[in-house]
């Protein structure tokens, strides 16, 4: 994953305005580190795994919400 791909995935997950701040919080890294990953295009491999887990959780949350609404 390069810096542009990182930004695209994070904007989709967290929104355009606060994606760097949210990724910093979720990854336990400093905001400056996130900016450097974006600029230099070299986020570590575990960031991809972290984003996959967040994507899966969001998908599960949507399914759970839909099911809960249907059961009411």
In a few lines, what is going on in this structure?
With 72 residues, the chain is an all-alpha fold. The protein contains 4 helices and no strands. α2 packs across α3.
Feature tags:
4 helices, mainly alpha, 81% helix, 72 residues
Which structural class fits the helix and strand makeup? Answer: mainly alpha
- Give a count of the beta strands, DSSP E runs of length 2 or more: 0
Q: Roughly how many Å apart are the termini?
A: 42 Å
Strand content: under 5%
Structural write-up:
The protein has four helices and no strands. With 72 residues, it is mainly alpha-helical. It has one domain. Helix 1 (3-14) crosses helix 2 and helix 2 (19-27) crosses helix 3. The protein is elongated. The mean pLDDT is 95.
Q: What is the fold's blueprint, element by element?
A:
Elements: H1 3-14, H2 19-27, H3 31-40, H4 45-71
Helix pairs in contact: 1-2, 1-3, 1-4, 2-3
